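[agent] plan:
  1. take the single chain provided in the ticket
  2. run structure prediction with default settings
  3. attach C-alpha coordinates to the ticket
  4. add a short note for the reviewer (M.T.)
[agent] executing step 1
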Amino acid sequence: MSGHNRWSKIKRKKEAMGGTKGVLFTKLIREITIAARNGGGDPDHNARLRSALLLGREANLPGETIKRAVMKGTGQLEGVAYEELVYEGYGPGGVAFVLEIVTDNKNRTAGDVRSIFTKGGGSMATTGSVAFQFEKKGIVPVRQGPDEDQVMELGLEAGAEDIVPDGDGGFELRTDPMAMMQVHKALEGKLPVGAPKMVYLPKTTVQIAGEMAERVLKLVEMLEENDDVQHLHANFEIDDDEIAALEART
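[agent] step 2 finished; step 3 output follows
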Protein backbone atom coordinates (compact mmCIF):
# COMPACT_ATOMS: atom_id res chain seq x y z
CA MET A 1 0.00 0.00 0.00
CA SER A 2 2.58 2.54 -1.10
CA GLY A 3 0.06 5.34 -1.48
CA HIS A 4 -1.34 4.75 1.97
CA ASN A 5 2.18 4.63 3.41
CA ARG A 6 3.00 7.92 1.76
CA TRP A 7 -0.08 9.51 3.30
CA SER A 8 1.23 8.34 6.70
CA LYS A 9 4.52 10.10 6.00
CA ILE A 10 2.72 13.33 5.09
CA LYS A 11 0.82 13.07 8.36
CA ARG A 12 4.04 12.58 10.34
CA LYS A 13 5.53 15.65 8.65
CA LYS A 14 2.51 17.71 9.72
CA GLU A 15 2.93 16.42 13.29
CA ALA A 16 6.60 17.39 13.28
CA MET A 17 5.68 20.90 12.12
CA GLY A 18 3.43 21.21 15.16
CA GLY A 19 0.04 21.41 13.48
CA THR A 20 -1.28 18.27 15.15
CA LYS A 21 1.32 17.72 17.88
CA GLY A 22 -1.15 18.57 20.67
CA VAL A 23 -3.57 15.88 19.50
CA LEU A 24 -0.70 13.40 19.09
CA PHE A 25 0.57 14.07 22.63
CA THR A 26 -2.93 13.62 24.08
CA LYS A 27 -3.25 10.22 22.40
CA LEU A 28 0.21 9.09 23.48
CA ILE A 29 -0.46 10.07 27.10
CA ARG A 30 -3.70 8.09 27.06
CA GLU A 31 -1.98 5.06 25.52
CA ILE A 32 0.75 5.10 28.19
CA THR A 33 -1.82 5.50 30.98
CA ILE A 34 -4.00 2.64 29.76
CA ALA A 35 -1.02 0.37 29.13
CA ALA A 36 0.21 0.95 32.69
CA ARG A 37 -3.30 0.45 34.08
CA ASN A 38 -3.79 -2.85 32.28
CA GLY A 39 -0.33 -4.37 32.66
CA GLY A 40 1.56 -2.51 35.39
CA GLY A 41 4.24 0.16 35.29
CA ASP A 42 7.28 -2.00 34.42
CA PRO A 43 7.92 -1.93 30.63
CA ASP A 44 10.15 -5.02 30.90
CA HIS A 45 7.05 -7.00 31.90
CA ASN A 46 4.43 -5.01 29.95
CA ALA A 47 4.84 -5.16 26.17
CA ARG A 48 2.13 -2.61 25.47
CA LEU A 49 3.68 -0.10 27.87
CA ARG A 50 7.15 -0.65 26.37
CA SER A 51 5.75 0.06 22.92
CA ALA A 52 3.87 3.15 24.15
CA LEU A 53 6.99 4.54 25.86
CA LEU A 54 9.07 4.06 22.71
CA LEU A 55 6.41 5.86 20.65
CA GLY A 56 6.31 8.66 23.21
CA ARG A 57 10.07 9.13 23.09
CA GLU A 58 10.07 9.11 19.28
CA ALA A 59 7.51 11.92 19.37
CA ASN A 60 9.61 13.86 21.93
CA LEU A 61 6.96 13.60 24.63
CA PRO A 62 8.55 15.19 27.74
CA GLY A 63 9.96 12.73 30.27
CA GLU A 64 7.99 14.22 33.16
CA THR A 65 4.76 13.89 31.16
CA ILE A 66 5.55 10.22 30.48
CA LYS A 67 6.27 9.60 34.16
CA ARG A 68 2.99 11.17 35.25
CA ALA A 69 1.03 9.17 32.66
CA VAL A 70 2.52 5.93 34.00
CA MET A 71 1.76 6.93 37.60
CA LYS A 72 -1.85 7.73 36.68
CA GLY A 73 -2.14 4.31 35.09
CA THR A 74 -0.76 2.50 38.13
CA GLY A 75 -2.92 4.53 40.52
CA GLN A 76 -0.07 6.46 42.14
CA LEU A 77 -1.68 9.65 40.85
CA GLU A 78 -5.36 10.35 40.36
CA GLY A 79 -6.41 9.93 36.74
CA VAL A 80 -9.38 9.70 34.40
CA ALA A 81 -11.27 6.40 34.03
CA TYR A 82 -10.86 5.63 30.34
CA GLU A 83 -12.76 2.97 28.40
CA GLU A 84 -11.45 1.25 25.27
CA LEU A 85 -13.83 0.59 22.37
CA VAL A 86 -13.70 -0.32 18.68
CA TYR A 87 -15.94 1.51 16.21
CA GLU A 88 -16.48 0.46 12.61
CA GLY A 89 -17.71 2.40 9.61
CA TYR A 90 -17.64 3.11 5.90
CA GLY A 91 -16.42 6.21 4.12
CA PRO A 92 -16.92 7.49 0.57
CA GLY A 93 -16.33 4.87 -2.12
CA GLY A 94 -17.02 2.01 0.26
CA VAL A 95 -13.72 2.48 2.12
CA ALA A 96 -13.78 0.45 5.35
CA PHE A 97 -12.70 2.01 8.67
CA VAL A 98 -11.81 0.47 12.03
CA LEU A 99 -11.31 2.98 14.85
CA GLU A 100 -9.72 2.21 18.21
CA ILE A 101 -11.36 4.52 20.72
CA VAL A 102 -10.25 5.69 24.17
CA THR A 103 -12.87 7.75 25.98
CA ASP A 104 -14.12 8.86 29.37
CA ASN A 105 -17.65 9.32 27.96
CA LYS A 106 -18.71 6.76 25.36
CA ASN A 107 -22.07 8.42 24.67
CA ARG A 108 -20.37 11.71 23.77
CA THR A 109 -17.76 9.94 21.65
CA ALA A 110 -20.30 7.80 19.77
CA GLY A 111 -22.27 10.93 18.87
CA ASP A 112 -19.15 12.84 17.82
CA VAL A 113 -17.78 10.03 15.64
CA ARG A 114 -21.16 9.36 14.03
CA SER A 115 -21.42 13.07 13.20
CA ILE A 116 -17.94 13.08 11.64
CA PHE A 117 -18.76 10.06 9.47
CA THR A 118 -22.00 11.68 8.31
CA LYS A 119 -20.30 15.00 7.57
CA GLY A 120 -17.57 13.16 5.65
CA GLY A 121 -19.99 11.25 3.45
CA GLY A 122 -19.78 7.96 5.36
CA SER A 123 -21.64 6.12 8.07
CA MET A 124 -21.08 4.15 11.26
CA ALA A 125 -21.49 0.37 10.93
CA THR A 126 -22.59 -2.35 13.34
CA THR A 127 -20.00 -4.22 15.38
CA GLY A 128 -18.32 -6.97 13.36
CA SER A 129 -19.62 -5.84 9.98
CA VAL A 130 -16.31 -4.20 8.98
CA ALA A 131 -13.55 -5.57 11.24
CA PHE A 132 -13.59 -9.00 9.57
CA GLN A 133 -11.98 -7.32 6.54
CA PHE A 134 -8.83 -6.67 8.62
CA GLU A 135 -6.20 -8.73 10.44
CA LYS A 136 -4.55 -7.53 13.64
CA LYS A 137 -0.76 -7.59 13.28
CA GLY A 138 2.33 -6.22 14.96
CA ILE A 139 4.53 -3.82 13.00
CA VAL A 140 8.24 -3.27 13.68
CA PRO A 141 9.50 -0.41 11.46
CA VAL A 142 13.07 -0.53 10.14
CA ARG A 143 14.54 2.83 9.18
CA GLN A 144 16.46 3.49 5.98
CA GLY A 145 19.93 1.96 5.84
CA PRO A 146 20.12 -1.83 5.60
CA ASP A 147 19.21 -3.55 2.33
CA GLU A 148 16.21 -5.82 1.85
CA ASP A 149 18.20 -9.07 2.03
CA GLN A 150 19.71 -8.09 5.39
CA VAL A 151 16.34 -7.02 6.80
CA MET A 152 14.69 -10.20 5.53
CA GLU A 153 17.35 -12.51 6.94
CA LEU A 154 17.45 -10.90 10.39
CA GLY A 155 13.69 -10.27 10.49
CA LEU A 156 12.67 -13.82 9.66
CA GLU A 157 15.27 -15.19 12.06
CA ALA A 158 13.77 -13.01 14.81
CA GLY A 159 10.25 -14.31 14.11
CA ALA A 160 8.72 -11.81 11.66
CA GLU A 161 6.09 -13.19 9.27
CA ASP A 162 6.60 -10.74 6.40
CA ILE A 163 8.83 -7.86 5.28
CA VAL A 164 7.31 -4.99 3.27
CA PRO A 165 9.09 -1.88 1.85
CA ASP A 166 7.65 1.29 3.40
CA GLY A 167 8.11 3.43 0.28
CA ASP A 168 10.73 5.63 1.94
CA GLY A 169 13.79 3.37 1.82
CA GLY A 170 12.88 1.51 4.99
CA PHE A 171 10.79 -1.54 5.76
CA GLU A 172 7.92 -2.83 7.90
CA LEU A 173 8.36 -6.16 9.63
CA ARG A 174 4.93 -7.69 10.16
CA THR A 175 4.47 -10.10 13.04
CA ASP A 176 1.92 -12.08 14.97
CA PRO A 177 0.63 -9.69 17.68
CA MET A 178 2.02 -11.89 20.46
CA ALA A 179 5.49 -11.94 18.84
CA MET A 180 5.85 -8.20 18.16
CA MET A 181 7.93 -7.28 21.19
CA GLN A 182 10.04 -10.42 20.93
CA VAL A 183 10.93 -9.49 17.34
CA HIS A 184 11.64 -5.87 18.31
CA LYS A 185 13.92 -6.85 21.20
CA ALA A 186 15.76 -9.41 19.05
CA LEU A 187 16.55 -6.77 16.40
CA GLU A 188 17.61 -3.89 18.66
CA GLY A 189 21.29 -3.28 18.01
CA LYS A 190 21.17 -5.29 14.77
CA LEU A 191 18.86 -3.08 12.71
CA PRO A 192 17.73 0.58 13.09
CA VAL A 193 14.28 -0.33 14.39
CA GLY A 194 11.62 2.19 15.38
CA ALA A 195 8.86 1.90 17.96
CA PRO A 196 6.65 -1.16 17.37
CA LYS A 197 2.87 -0.87 17.17
CA MET A 198 -0.28 -2.92 16.69
CA VAL A 199 -2.34 -2.30 13.55
CA TYR A 200 -5.35 -3.64 11.69
CA LEU A 201 -4.10 -4.58 8.22
CA PRO A 202 -6.73 -4.78 5.45
CA LYS A 203 -7.09 -8.15 3.72
CA THR A 204 -8.06 -6.35 0.49
CA THR A 205 -7.86 -2.70 -0.50
CA VAL A 206 -10.04 -0.16 -2.32
CA GLN A 207 -8.28 1.98 -4.96
CA ILE A 208 -9.41 5.61 -4.88
CA ALA A 209 -8.46 8.67 -6.92
CA GLY A 210 -9.49 12.22 -7.76
CA GLU A 211 -12.38 13.74 -5.86
CA MET A 212 -13.04 10.43 -4.07
CA ALA A 213 -9.48 10.42 -2.69
CA GLU A 214 -9.89 13.99 -1.46
CA ARG A 215 -13.14 13.12 0.30
CA VAL A 216 -11.68 10.01 1.97
CA LEU A 217 -8.56 11.84 3.16
CA LYS A 218 -10.70 14.70 4.50
CA LEU A 219 -12.71 12.15 6.51
CA VAL A 220 -9.45 10.60 7.78
CA GLU A 221 -8.25 14.03 8.92
CA MET A 222 -11.50 14.84 10.71
CA LEU A 223 -11.51 11.50 12.53
CA GLU A 224 -7.86 11.74 13.55
CA GLU A 225 -8.40 15.25 14.90
CA ASN A 226 -10.86 13.82 17.42
CA ASP A 227 -9.04 13.23 20.71
CA ASP A 228 -10.99 10.03 21.41
CA VAL A 229 -9.97 8.31 18.14
CA GLN A 230 -6.78 6.68 19.37
CA HIS A 231 -5.90 4.76 16.19
CA LEU A 232 -7.47 4.76 12.73
CA HIS A 233 -7.19 1.91 10.23
CA ALA A 234 -8.66 1.92 6.70
CA ASN A 235 -8.43 -0.15 3.54
CA PHE A 236 -7.96 2.56 0.90
CA GLU A 237 -5.04 2.72 -1.49
CA ILE A 238 -3.95 5.77 -3.49
CA ASP A 239 -1.29 5.95 -6.22
CA ASP A 240 1.83 7.89 -5.26
CA ASP A 241 1.25 10.39 -8.10
CA GLU A 242 -2.24 11.05 -6.80
CA ILE A 243 -0.94 11.59 -3.25
CA ALA A 244 1.72 13.99 -4.56
CA ALA A 245 -0.93 15.99 -6.42
CA LEU A 246 -3.13 16.14 -3.32
CA GLU A 247 -0.20 17.21 -1.15
CA ALA A 248 0.66 20.00 -3.61
CA ARG A 249 -2.87 21.37 -3.27
CA THR A 250 -2.84 21.41 0.56
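[agent] step 4 note for reviewer: Residues 115 and 123 are 9 Å apart (CA to CA).
[agent] ticket updated
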